[in-house]
Amino acid sequence: MMLLLFSCTCGGVSNEFFLLPNEQRDAEFQKYDLETHYKIYICGQKREPPMLGLASPLAREGGRIVPFLKAKLESADDDSTVEDIVYVFAEMNVRGTYDLAADKSLMEELRLKVSRVKDPAWQNMIEKNLPEIQEKSPTTSKP
User: Which of 12, 118, 123, 126 is the most buried (most CB within 10 A)?
Assistant: First the structure.
């Protein structure tokens, strides 16, 4: 039974990765390219409990990965993936690595994609991130 657990993958990433101690997992994570980071992040969000900490390394990249994440958002076809991507964008904003509120086309794409979320509960949860992004924007925040 344990052998089966280690041989399973999510997006090509071994489940063994997710069982590593935090420091070792973080060190391993840094060895991968952006596409693999994204796959690991999405897989980590499907676990119980979700591995929200995997959003931080992506969010630290800021504007460098915005086009990549925007393309992933545009092609996302399930509610949970939309939520996961919005969460990374919100984390970028909180960390100050990218000013989402100033990126009008991205904010419009976020609103559009969120409006198309099928599950009302998911949509409500995701919609709550949008005003927080606007309020916590590095350019609109009050000291």
Answer: 126
Q: Is residue 1 part of a domain?
A: no
Residue 3 falls inside a structural domain: no
Give all strands (DSSP E) within 78-133, no chain letters: none
Query: 79-95 and 66-75 helices cross at what angle (nearest 10)?
Result: 160
Contact predicate 97/59, CB 8 Å = yes
Instruction: Give tens-digit pLDDT for 7-60.
Output: 567 777 788 888 889 889 888 888 889 999 999 999 999 888 899 999 999 999
Q: pLDDT tens digits, residue range 76-85?
A: 999 999 999 9
Closest to 51 (Cα-Cα) out of 26, 77, 27: 26
Q: Is residue 8 part of a domain?
A: no
- Closest C-alpha among 102, 103, 72 to residue 88: 72
Q: Which domain holds residue 70?
A: 13-135
Residue 93 near residue 101, CB atoms below 8 Å: yes
Task: With beta carbons less than 8 A apart as the criterion, state whether 34 and 68 touch.
Answer: yes
| 7 lies in some domain | no
- pTM of the model as a whole: 0.84
